[in-house]
C-alpha cells in the first residue's frame, strides 16, 4: 500500500518534521517527505540551472556535439532553446540550451518510489518556424551537485525519462507536469540506493535528443521554452513529487 503523501519536508535543513520516536511504544516515525525542491542560491546540496552553446554559424551535427560555452545556476529562469540565423547554407545554427535539475532525496534513502511527477511553472514559449517542439525529462550527470560548468552540457542523456509535453500543450503561465516513466522511476530508486541525489534534466525531445536538425538554411528561427527556476522571485519553484511503494 502506498505511503500516504505528507508534506513534512523542511527544505532549508533537509529534515523530516513531526512524529516521534519509534521505540518504547511511541508513535511510528513519519514517512519521508513526498515533495522535493532544488536549492535556490546559495545552493547547499542540489540546484537547477541551464547550460548553453553560443557560437558562430555551424552545422547541426557540430553544435549538438559541442561542449557548452557557458552555464548558470543563479538565473531566475531555465531555458531549452534551439536557434538558427542567417548563416551559410547548411551552417545556420548558433544557440543550443539544455537544463539540469537536481533533487536531494537523501532523507528517503532505503525507500522505494513507485510514482513520480516533475512540475515546472512555464513563463514563455516561441516556435516561429512551426516546428512543434517537445519538452521531456532526461538524465543528467553534472560534475558538481551545487553548480554547473559548461562541460555539463554534454552530460544529459538521450533516453526519455518521462512523457512528452508538446509545444501547443506547454503552459507559458502555469504548471507543466511530467510523469516519469519506468526508466525515470528506476533512476530515482538507484539514487535512493546511493547518495540520494536525483540528477535530472530537460532537453528538446523532438529534435535535440534524437539528433534531428530542425532548421535548414533559414533566417532567424527559434524554438524556445522557458520556466521559473528556484531563484525566481515568484517562487513557483520546480518540484519533484513522489509516492512510495
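-> sequence recovered:
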Amino acid at each position: 500500500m502506498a505511503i500516504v503523501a505528507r508534506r513534512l519536508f523542511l527544505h532549508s535543513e533537509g529534515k523530516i518534521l513531526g512524529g516521534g520516536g519509534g521505540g518504547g511504544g511511541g508513535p511510528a516515525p513519519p514517512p519521508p517527505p513526498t515533495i522535493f525542491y532544488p536549492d535556490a542560491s546559495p545552493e547547499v546540496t542540489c540546484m537547477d540551472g541551464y547550460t548553453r552553446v553560443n557560437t558562430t554559424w555551424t552545422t547541426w551535427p557540430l553544435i549538438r556535439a559541442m561542449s557548452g560555452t557557458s552555464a548558470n545556476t543563479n538565473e531566475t529562469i531555465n531555458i531549452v532553446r534551439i536557434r538558427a540565423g542567417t548563416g551559410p547554407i547548411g551552417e545556420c545554427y548558433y544557440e543550443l540550451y539544455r537544463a539540469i535539475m537536481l533533487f536531494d532525496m537523501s532523507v528517503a534513502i532505503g525507500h522505494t518510489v513507485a510514482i513520480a511527477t516533475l512540475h515546472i511553472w512555464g513563463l514563455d514559449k516561441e516556435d516561429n518556424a512551426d516546428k512543434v517542439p517537445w519538452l521531456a525529462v532526461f538524465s543528467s550527470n553534472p560534475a558538481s551537485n551545487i553548480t554547473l560548468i559548461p562541460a555539463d552540457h554534454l552530460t544529459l542523456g538521450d533516453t526519455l525519462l518521462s512523457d512528452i509535453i508538446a509545444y501547443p500543450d506547454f503552459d507559458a503561465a502555469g504548471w507543466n507536469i511530467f510523469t516519469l516513466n519506468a526508466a525515470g522511476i528506476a533512476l530515482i530508486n538507484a539514487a535512493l540506493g546511493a547518495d540520494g541525489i536525483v540528477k535530472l534534466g530537460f532537453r528538446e525531445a523532438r529534435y535535440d535528443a534524437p539528433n534531428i536538425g530542425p532548421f535548414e538554411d533559414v533566417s532567424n528561427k527559434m524554438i524556445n521554452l522557458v520556466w521559473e527556476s528556484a531563484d525566481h522571485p515568484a517562487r513557483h519553484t520546480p518540484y519533484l513529487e513522489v509516492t512510495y511503494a
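Residues 1-23 have pLDDT under 50 and may be disordered.
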